[in-house]
Sequence to fold (469 residues):
Amino acid sequence: MKMFINGEWVDRDSKIDVLNPFDGSVIDTVPRASVEDVKAAIATAVKGSEIMAAMPAHERYKILHRASELMAERVQDLGRTISTEEGKVIGEGVGEAGRAVETMTMSAEEAKRLYGETIPLDGSTGAEGKFGFTLRIPCGVVVAITPFNFPLNLVCHKVGPALASGNAVIVKPATDTPLSAIKLTEILVEAGVPCEAIQCLTGSGSEIGDVLSGDPLVRKISFTGSRDVGEQICRNAGLKKVTMELGANSPLVVMADADLEKVASATAVTGFANAGQVCISTQRVLVDQEVYGDFIEVLTPKVEALSVGNQLDESVSVGPMVREQDAVRVGSWIEEAIQDGARIVTGGGREGSLHEPTIVADVDPGMRISCDELFGPAVGLTRFEHIDEAITVANNTNYGLSAAIFTENLSDAMKFVRGVHSGNINVNWGTQWRADLMPYGGLKDSGMGKEGPKYAIEEMTELKMVVIH
Ligand code: NAD
Fold:
């Protein structure tokens, strides 16, 4: 496929292969954007930002609504593209495409809700008789940099709100999974987004990222990806607005009064969907020592029931990891934990990019499999004696994106809700749950700023204060 700059679909001699993670076959190629391509895209986006800022809200609404209709018509193709380039099973791929349609629809609706407010200036001495109000205005040029693991919906979470609030946007999709974003760009252009206002640059983040994030003409960066790349972007960005949606090692606390069947079912879903490559995957399962053995017994058959294989085979529940080297890394972290005293309950095997769903028991919170982001199909079990200890362990990390507790006791649930430092908290489900309209984002090293169309629009706009004297 080609990338889209300055209203044209362009190719380059230097290309990047897009691979099917299951067998390494080349599905397609995309051009490797150069620094000159980035500069051209930014110059065009400046014009695009003027066009968008002048466009009435009802027109922005209509265009985005039309885009969501086109996405809905092509949902099967989009879902298959996601699965083929990313490796998630086809049901999850089509599910993501369906969510992306909703994200775009909600973004369209938000185009009509850019409210300001009147400010009661007479509350300040000497300001009587003056009239104050705020205007919400677009930032201008928005750069959207996205990760591999949700190659369509997370692009929509940036592009939808950016366009809805009158910005121009340049998308830089993940190097491994650019095809879904290119198809989305085709749809946006077809729906009527001015071609100066939507561009899609394919290529390597490490080659073009600094030019893209450092340019002062870019007024807002919305980034989803790893902690380290996020930090690099923040250092490079200088004085501009940034939203950072970063990684995590999310804890799930299992209290002794929990329904272990429910916890086990939730763990099998929230720890292993997309082969564990979800920013809010359940990674650290902290279990009350009273039910530790029983929980392992209930969880094991549920994890063993997850079949592993070709993501396009509808009977498969866990597909490949995005790259074989990631499956190798997950295996080596598990091995390291075993050497330090943990034990494998089930799984542990690997064939190419396929890593078996794995339960590791007796994990010490200091082990890498617990304190770093694993981002793979394994959960680590650690026992605790008291809820205070569980909260301390849950908080003993630089991350804070999602946390969960299973309990029938409201006081324990509220103690956890208040005590745990996390942007998203689930009671009686695992850490992986998101409705696309809710405010979503992390604390601490998991990032800053919120997504969800309404909240992303707040991040992608500025307030002007006006006083009539
Ligand atoms: P990554 O950080 O490797 O890459 C993300 C994007 O950044 C890619 O498009 C990449 O090309 C680009 N990039 C790389 N170097 C860059 C640079 N110097 N300047 C600008 N851009 C650069 O992440 P990934 O491996 O694609 O995704 C996995 C990570 O994303 C995990 O840490 C996961 O937790 C996180 N994630 C977070 C959320 C969230 O909402 N918090 C959601 C999904 C994924």
